[in-house]
Automatic annotation (TrEMBL):
UniProt-recorded name of the protein: EGFL6 protein
Leader sequence residues: none
GO CC, alphabetical: membrane
Classification via CDD domains: MAM
Organism listed in the record: Psilopogon haemacephalus
Domain of life according to the entry: Eukaryota
Name of the gene: Egfl6_1
Gene3D superfamilies: 2.60.120.200
Residues annotated as domain MAM: 2-148
SMART domains cross-referenced by the UniProt entry: MAM
Pfam families: MAM (PF00629)
Length: 149
């Protein structure tokens, strides 16, 4: 698997220059490294922050699985979406507030056709609330289908 987590991952992460705010590193509770987060009070309602994972060397006609942990903490904190490549069409994954504020695992299957996916974008949309944060951590890309839970 390719470890794209933020503390010691080998992947190329880029902040989108055309969005409204950046994702920022935040310290993990246990103190081992950090995750990327957007505090709830940043920007105005509906503002977006995009963090892009640039992919190279994905083989065409192959399946991959993107696994990551995420957290939406706080009242009306907003939405977290994942988009593949630079096409701004529908997200392949979307989440707004969960039942609680625990870290959860997200999985996305990426099927490479003849045209390969060259980036994955994590997009945070600001909600109405102004406490809490949206966070992403432990991003891993593995070849093959996503494992069952």
């Amino acid at each position: 698997p390719v470890d794209c987590s933020f503390s010691r991952g080998v992947c190329d992460w880029k902040q989108d220059a055309d969005d409204d705010f950046d994702w920022n590193p935040a310290d993990r509770d246990r103190g081992d490294g950090y995750y990327m987060a957007v505090p709830a009070f940043v920007g105005h309602k509906k503002d977006m922050g995009r963090l892009k994972l640039l992919l190279t060397d994905l083989k065409p006609k192959t399946s991959y699985c993107l696994i990551f942990t995420y957290r939406l903490a706080g009242e009306r904190v907003g939405k977290l979406r994942v988009f593949l490549t630079n096409k701004k069409h529908a997200p392949v994954w979307e989440q707004d507030k969960g039942k609680d504020e625990r870290w959860r695992t997200g999985k996305i299957e990426i099927f490479q056709g003849a045209e390969t996916t060259n980036s994955i974008t994590f997009e945070s949309e600001r909600g109405k609330g102004n406490t809490g944060e949206i966070g992403v951590d432990n991003v891993i890309l593995i070849s093959g289908l996503c494992p069952e839970d």
